Amino acid sequence: MDKIVLSNISKSYSGIPAVRTLTLNIREGEFLTLLGPSGCGKTTTLRMIAGLEDTDSGEITVGDQIFFSQSKGLYVPPEKRDLGFIFQSYALWPHMTVRKNISLGLEEKKIDKDKIEKTVINALKKVQLEGLEDRYPSELSGGQQQRVAVARMVASEPQIFLMDEPLSNLDAMLRIGMRAELKHLHHELGATTVYVTHDQNEALTLSDRIVVMESGELRQIGTPEEIYKKSADLFVAKFVGSPQINILKGRTVIDNDEFFFISGTIKKKVSIPSEYMNMDLTVTIRPEEIKIKNEKESNWLECDVYSVLPAGSETIIAVKKDGMDLTLKINGFADYKIDDKVWIDFNQDQMNYYDLETAKLLF
Ligand SMILES: Nc1ncnc2c1ncn2[C@@H]1O[C@H](COP(=O)(O)OP(=O)(O)OP(=O)(O)O)[C@@H](O)[C@H]1O
Ligand SMILES: [Mg+2]
After folding, report:
1. Which portions of the chain are predicted below pLDDT 50?
2. What is the pLDDT of residue 146?
3. Predicted pLDDT at 126
4. Residue among 92, 90, 2, 82 at smallest CA distance from 49
5. Which helix or strand (DSSP H or E) is residue 317 part of?
6. What is the number of the ligand closest to the CA of 164?
7. 19, 40, 45: which to mutate for ligand 1, most atoms within 8 A of CB?
8. How far apart are CA 343 and CA 360, in angstroms?
9. Domain boundaries, the chain
10. Is the pTM of this model over 0.85?
């Protein structure tokens, strides 16, 4: 069942579009992430759902309530939308204790004192901050402050959680820890969540589904696996995944009744639909989908090792073949050295084919 429906919503600032006729259905209980580069319209979209930003056109529905409709002339102000919001900055009140920061919103709702105290303690338990209710924000680490912001959102029991880059000002270790916390919390509460990040790794880690945006437009919506393995266009393919996906321009040809993809001096036998034969197109292959050996293997491609970057759990290897660069990723440490001769092969069923002109996925 859909919880949030955005129908053709648009927003411009002084005539410059920030979000262009975006249509999106977000399911009840889903963790949906808006992912895209800086300025693509993620925050604007979130703020329109929250009512913190005026929407120019289209319709926004949450549950059975219309929050905004241009055609029907409807608009519900933010305070009547019953939404929880976490901004990029923690936005805790510095002169109030943790308890007060969390209880303030509940006091405004005229809930009785005992119930508020219980709710505060419960919310702090959920983010593992029990016992810190009398501290001031300045007496907490960045990660703890961010947890208080999460606790505050949880305590007010909104119908939807909206989070705008909530982890971006935490250091790398804390960020990874907080991801696990957020994911566990979502599992526990099952609240419909719209999450904004420009970090593809964070999006892949947390989400049930991801919306990739660019220049105010939706490029692809899908599960993390769909987005990663079947990127709808080259923009998505390049934006998601680290190290970046390999991209080869080339042509499909038939040789002795066999199908090949040719790119420079690379000639790779492939099994693809015959309607895509004799076509110029672009092929992508993820770094971990290229096999490598230090012995000659028939039909594998001979290359020179350009660099080897071990990182403990994985090693990134760059190879060159007649001026063409390819990046590979293998598990653990590698036995390869710069200038070694190696033989590589693409994992055929993980090659994706894109239209040369539109950059859209063909198959
Ligand atoms: N108040 C504003 N006035 C004018 N232009 C704005 C305003 N807010 C946003 N914009 C513009 O709208 C576009 C979308 O901005 P938005 O903040 O939604 O991007 P974003 O995807 O959240 O980016 P980031 O990852 O940097 O936070 C940008 O080009 C931005 O400059
Ligand atoms: Mg933003």
Report:
1. none
2. 87
3. 87
4. 82
5. strand 314-321
6. 2
7. 40
8. 30
9. 2-237, 246-355
10. yes
